[in-house]
Amino acid sequence: MDLSLVIPVKEEEENLPELMKEIVDAITPTGKSFEVIVIDDGSRDRSWNVLLELAKQYDFLRLFRFQFNCGKADALSLGFSKARGELIATLDGDLQDDPREIPKMMKILDEGYDLVSGWKVRRHDPWHKTWPSKLFNLTVSAVCGKRLHDFNCGIKLYRASVVRFINLYGDFHRFIPVMAKWQGARVTEMPVTHRARVHGSSKYGVSRLVSGFLDLLTLLFLNKFATKPLHFFGLFGLLFFLFGGAVFGYFGFEWLKTGALHLRPLIVVGGFSLLMGIQLFSIGFLAELMSRNKEQRYPIAETVRDAVETDLEERV
């Protein structure tokens, strides 16, 4: 298999038929063998029924369904684990991404890159989505050391080897280019066409800006301390411990010198510092134990195997 297209969808029943037609028109002329993996992320409309009908029409279509809304990161993670292509493309199911950009990305990938990320130069979104997105992209570029104009663009193309070792959960799908770069992948971007939404409504609001910055802090912490959390907690624990030890050492010296010891606020602060140091060391040790026993888990998913007739089972 040359190419796998991974598409998370949530309540996009009106967009799915047109999306499949566009994919066929865009990928078939390349002569590449391809599959389309669609993950229904707990839709409550007729998206799943529409997908089942499309699966009867298109033999390249493989369907998976979450029993409840798990989020885009979990949907992509499942799609990556099921993909069989040497190249893996992602795009959203709302028709705002143009599948005709994927062949262009393939040519850029042939120049020696491992990941090509889309850049929506001209976005057809309201200002309350575009301006927070620009601020977010600038912040991520400055903090992570990789300048991209649009980290969260839905359309991307990867070599399969890139996504095999990326652990996605929460909203970490926004940082795939960053995580890929940290693993040594060669990352670039390409301007892509962004189209206005015709059917349905956006599933994201302004609140994702706050969660995005919190996820960025989490990502930075995990990148540096995921395998050695004691180095983080132990550093602060050591500082508290040294300060508390210095305070008690000072008062101990005063007691030996004068034979008198008076309760002062500084003694309370020193005792608090010693306790904080002990607690931080304890948290660090517990985190070390947990990091040694972590495992990858995927949300429960129902595949098309459970929902349609036998002739479709071989495609899953």
Automatic annotation (TrEMBL):
Domain of life according to the entry: Bacteria
Transmembrane among keywords: yes
SUPFAM superfamilies noted in UniProt: Nucleotide-diphospho-sugar transferases
Keyword terms of this UniProt record: Cell membrane, Glycosyltransferase, Lipopolysaccharide biosynthesis, Membrane, Transferase, Transmembrane, Transmembrane helix
GO terms for cellular component: plasma membrane
GO MF term list: undecaprenyl-phosphate 4-deoxy-4-formamido-L-arabinose transferase activity
UniProt domain Glycosyltransferase 2-like: residue ranges: 4-163
Annotated transmembrane regions: 205-223, 230-253, 265-287
UniProt xrefs under Gene3D superfamilies: Spore Coat Polysaccharide Biosynthesis Protein SpsA, Chain A (3.90.550.10)
InterPro entries: Glyco_trans_2-like, Glycosyltransferase_2, Nucleotide-diphossugar_trans
The keyword Transferase appears for this protein: yes
PANTHER family, per the entry: UNDECAPRENYL-PHOSPHATE 4-DEOXY-4-FORMAMIDO-L-ARABINOSE TRANSFERASE, UNDECAPRENYL-PHOSPHATE 4-DEOXY-4-FORMAMIDO-L-ARABINOSE TRANSFERASE-RELATED
Name of the protein this chain belongs to: Glycosyltransferase involved in cell wall biosynthesis
UniProt source species: Hallerella succinigenes
